[in-house]
Amino acid sequence: MNFNPELNSEDYFDHEYNRTMNNERCVEVSLGIRWVEALKDSSNLIEVGAVLPYYLPYYQEVKYRVVDLYDKKATDNIDVMKVDLTGLDVLSISTIEHIGMADYQEDWKGVTDRVIIDPEASILALRKILDESNSCLVTVPIGYNVALDSWLQENLDSLNCFGYEKLSMYDKTVWPPVFSPRWNCVKNIIKEYLYYPYHFPYPYANFVLFIQGWK
Predict the structure, then answer these.
(1) Residues pairing with 184 in the sheet
(2) pLDDT tens-digit series, residues 29-60
(3) 165, 166, 138: which is closest to 152 by C-alpha?
(4) Are strands 45-48 and 65-67 parallel, antiparallel or unpaired?
């Protein structure tokens, strides 16, 4: 696959839904689209977590499979652990970290803190993708799910991955400062990147890990 992970600021995905330029979606969606377009054969494509359908209706028209236990735009409302991913090309954008957390569960509505119900669930889902897929691109915002972060820290040397580090939100070389998010592509990931906090110093993710499989 001829996939280039490096983005320039003009490549950032700007969309009003979820205000992508304000958060990690600006790099995640852009690279997700690029990864899909780099596939030689998109017939084996499956998306875990319904993200691209919100930004690119075209991909829904292609009829590729989208599995998401809760989302109405998924083609299948099913737990990823019940899906056979063998030989498939799996895209998953900021989804794995939510598995096993209270975010979308009815009994936990109104909870604002990131509460982990099952610390193993996200790890098992990620391992399933890594073990079964033909190829994958899985994005994980660091600092959101500390149980998953801990596993990533322990297994970093076994992962084929790169990352994006948020450098700034505003250009302060002018006055008044101009909104101008900047992200830096990090190809040589060291464990220190996997200790980034979520929502600090900038809103939402400050470091996003992009996983492409086992080494």
Answers:
(1) 165
(2) 999 999 999 998 888 999 999 999 999 876 66
(3) 138
(4) parallel
Q: How far apart are CA 104 and CA 47, in angstroms?
A: 18
39 contact partners, CB below 8 Å, separation of at least 6: 1, 45, 89, 135
What letter would DSSP give residue 19?
A: G
Residue among 208, 129, 131, 103 nearest 163 (CA):
208
Structure tokens at 178: 């101009």
pTM greater than 0.90: yes
> Position 157: which residue type?
D
- Scanning the chain, the segments in alpha helix (DSSP H) are 25-38, 52-55, 57-61, 121-132, 146-155
Are 49 and 103 in contact, with CB atoms under 8 Å apart? Answer: no
Helices within 71-201 (DSSP H only): 121-132, 146-155
